[in-house]
Amino acid sequence: LKELDVLIELKRFPDRHVVFDRGQYACGMEPSIVKFTELFGKVEAIGAFPGHIMTVYHENIMTFDRAESDLEYCILLDNVGQEDASTRIIPEGDYITALYCGIPNDISCKRIYSKLLQWIEDNGYIEWGASIEHYIVDMAQMMKPEEFIVELQVPIRKGLTL
């Protein structure tokens, strides 16, 4: 989609082990950095190796309240380490994804999400769960958000035909 400068792909992800923190949180750069910093401490405490960071939106991206939303901050685990209450598995599944570069914000996220929803409808799929922003960055890059590479992942299933 050249007008949005994104790459859209249909992907299948395996089970993903994550350390997570889900709650009612403000959505923004500063609260995210605080939460991810706390999660890196949990990763170290369970003896795991951190991978990429992600935010799971347990509300509709088009209508959620940025001041307080049902968000889940996650860090992928490259090795499982010692599992505890702060770890879980995001189950394997099919996702329509959009890869883009730049600062994740309300406007860009909604524009890209609406394009993914249109693809879902046009291709006979249905949305099947919470959407994920997968930040393909590391802690060293978190202070340069304009260089972020983000993949928006929307879980899907083939729709029912009547």
Structure characteristics:
21% helix; 9 strands; 162 residues
What does this protein look like?
The protein has 162 residues and is an alpha+beta fold. The chain contains two helices and nine strands, in the order E-E-H-E-E-E-E-H-E-E-E. Strands 1, 2, 3, 4, 5, 6, 7, 8 and 9 form a nine-stranded antiparallel sheet that branches.
Describe, in short, the structure shown:
With 162 residues, the chain is an alpha+beta fold.
Strand content: 35-45%
Spans where pLDDT lies below 50 across 5 or more residues: none
Radius of gyration: 16 Å
> Judging from the principal axes of the Cα atoms, what is the shape?
globular
Output the number of helix runs: 2
Helix content: 10-25%
Distance between the termini: 31 Å
Largest sheet: 9 strands, antiparallel
Total beta strand runs:
9
- Structural class designation: alpha+beta
**SSE order:** EEHEEEEHEEE
Average pLDDT score: 88
Task: Please describe the topology of this protein.
Blueprint: E1 6-13, E2 16-25, H1 29-45, E3 49-57, E4 69-79, E5 87-90, E6 93-101, H2 106-122, E7 125-127, E8 131-135, E9 149-158
Antiparallel strand pairs: 1-6, 2-4, 2-5, 3-4, 3-8, 6-9, 7-9, 8-9
